[in-house]
Amino acid sequence: MAAISPPTGYTMSDSISIWCECDVVSCSGLEKCMTTAKCYTALVTDVVQGTQQTSQRYGCVDDLMQEELTCNTEFDHKAVVKCCNDGDYCNRDLFPTFSPVTKDIAEDEYLTGLMISIFLPIIGLMLVGCVILLVMRRMHRKQMAMLSERDPRSFGHLISTPAGDSTLGEVFEHSVTSGSGAGLPLLVQRTVSRSISLVECIGKGRYGEVWKGLYQGEPVAVKIFSSRDEVSWQRETEIYNTVLLRHSNILGYIGSDMTSKNGCTQLWLITHYCEYGSLYDYLNNYTLDIQTALYFLISAANGLLHLHTAVFGTQGKVAIAHRDVKSKNILVKLQNTHGAPRKSNRAYVSHYVMEAEVKATEHIKADEYRPPYYDRVGHDPSFDEMKHVVAKEGHRPQMRNQWGENSTLMGVARLMKECWAANPMARHSMLRIKKTLLKIASHEEKMELDLEDFEVST
Hints:
This is receptor protein serine/threonine kinase. By secondary structure, this protein is of the alpha+beta class.
């Protein structure tokens, strides 16, 4: 066997490995051991079944510390140790004897050294464990502090019915969150990405990409954050898990997960998926009649009312302000298609379908679309331009002349103007808006809507 480097304090001759005699008790059944330190022989006194017996022990001293603590010492007539390193099995010729002179001092030193050699590693491990726990606790507090820094303006998307389960084409372009209930249990969420296969990218935004995926054979929307946007992902996940937030007019939440793709960490947020996309996309692809437009308005108001409503109790919900309601942040889930015929090859459409489309839109002429304030600001106005036009000059969007030709549209226009009041105290609450829309819809003869689905207590 090759020699081992000697411990500090040894001479060159000490670096040579030597064999030592061993006894069954000291060496766990072995008859010899090797060391670069010293061999020892110990005379040990034990009490066996009430009888005091003295026996000889042999073995190896492993290091300098053990040698200093044990060699040539006596422990209160219970043990005396002698050491040597002048050749293989040199401890066979050692015959230690008890000496009454220094037994108390030797025993104290032995016990102290023994306690140090036993408890020092244990204390070290405990200290390391405490440090790890403190670091983990600090990281947890930091994460919770970041989660608590909510920006109300970042709360994201509503769902309008007849508008299921919401397509997310441009849904995430300008917002961080979309709302809804508790989602899957945490342990399920942390493994949900393993069960999802990504199909195609359907949108990109500030925080990453949105993909259409398949989860247990059903389509889902997967918003993928990069690791540098972990705070946004955590905040959005927390909002999704808000108690009592689940609602038919708020985007359905499935779960959140962290995974690794191509060596990069990805943070996933999984929600319901719908092929029709945002209201902005929907209005660019389909024609609405008055009844369907009312349905959209009522269902959007229904979702906003749920956000605004505070629920008190042990499992309550705080009132939430959306602060970014626009067509790109309202998702469409169609429960029927009245008033919204799909695009098709007109040459093959039956005559009664064409007649139904004409009747649905004959009371309104489709004018060229013009955005609000088109005659006062450019196509892409700045915030300062809009502030000057709206806040300082007090202008409001112009209503189409055709709206005055229909009682339903007149009622909606009147409600819109009341919501534009310069004095915030004069504006309607969302509960009042919803009730007014329901009243307008109740007078619409062609309204194919079960208004009981939207009723509220007075």
